[in-house]
Amino acid sequence: GNSVTQMEGPVTLSEEAFLTINCTYTATGYPSLFWYVQYPGEGLQLLLKATKADDKGSNKGFEATYRKETTSFHLEKGSVQVSDSAVYFCALSARSSASKIIFGSGTRLSIRP
Amino acid sequence: GAVVSQHPSRVICKSGTSVKIECRSLDFQATTMFWYRQFPKQSLMLMATSNEGSKATYEQGVEKDKFLINHASLTLSTLTVTSAHPEDSSFYICSASRAAGEGDTQYFGPGTRLTVL
After folding, report:
1. How far apart, in whole angstroms, are the C-alpha atoms of residue A37 and residue A99?
2. Fewer CB within 10 Å: C terminus or N terminus of chain B?
3. Strand B112-116 relative to strand B90-98: parallel, antiparallel, unpaired?
4. Is B41 on the interface with A (CB under 8 A)?
5. Cα A67 from chain centre
6. Is there a contact between B37 and B45 (Cβ–Cβ < 8 Å)?
7. For the segment A8-43, what is each residue's pLDDT rounded down to a tens digit?
8. Which residue in A has a C-alpha nearest to residue B5's C-alpha?
9. Cβ–Cβ of B109/A49 closer than 8 Å?
10. Integer-rounded Cα radius of gyration of chain B
11. From B32, which residue of chain A is nearest by alpha-carbon distance?
12. Distances (CA, A) of B70 to A62, A107, B10, B11, B52
């Protein structure tokens, strides 16, 4: 079945450090891929998405590229800020499953000033 | 655009009572709404999918008589936790998909924290 595996946290970085959170997926066909962010005590916000191979999603300095050959969608940011501290979820939606989203386990990111 | 609200944001109730949580799409029509449950420091688990005007589709292991879902209009879905017990305490999050345009993108509400005493 479809699944998402992402880097286990927590991840702690200093401000202005480079961030990578790994995400790989298993799916039949061509799923859409997402990164969602959850700030403390809040619901999820869509951070970025990509719907086909080699697409790059980007938002707020974060980027992720849909790599079909490696079935990956790693999240990167060149210089993190304290305000980026949150939990990040990688997710996929298979086109055959009526928009049902499958989430990874989440990665907690903490940024030190 | 694409704002989803939930009400209430936080509720505390006694064991045995029923609690209703509302999910609204404020600026778009949502043919499909989803209800998730999230335990502390864990990922979201899909409970059910509801389409406007039809019965909800529940995920395996979710009791449909315990978690009643109604999707009466294109902007409103409700989740009622019936005869709540302490083990039902959790963070409940809804999401909605637009009627057209973005297909599989879901927009999430801010969540409702339920505490059953």
Report:
1. 19
2. N
3. antiparallel
4. yes
5. 13
6. yes
7. 889 999 999 999 999 999 998 889 999 999 998 788
8. A43
9. no
10. 13
11. A99
12. 37, 33, 20, 19, 8
Which residue in the block uniquely carries the two structure tokens 């109730």? B13
How many DSSP H helices and E strands does chain A contain? 0, 12
In angstroms, what CA-CA distances link A41 with B9, B45, B111? Answer: 10, 17, 8
Tokens of B72: 């009466």
Q: Are B54 and B72 in contact (CB under 8 A)?
A: no
- Which residues share a beta bridge with A102? A92
Q: Is there a contact between B85 and B97 (Cβ–Cβ < 8 Å)?
A: no
Chain A residues with CB-CB distance to B93 below 8 A: 43-44
Q: How remote is the C-alpha of A50 from its chain's centroid?
A: 11
Chain A contact for B95, CB < 8 A? yes
Residue-wise pLDDT for B35-58, tens only, equals: 999 888 788 889 999 988 888 999
Name residue, tokens 């191979």. Answer: A53
B chain contacts of residue A46, beta-carbon cutoff 8 Å: 105-108
Q: Token pair for residue A83?
A: 């305000």
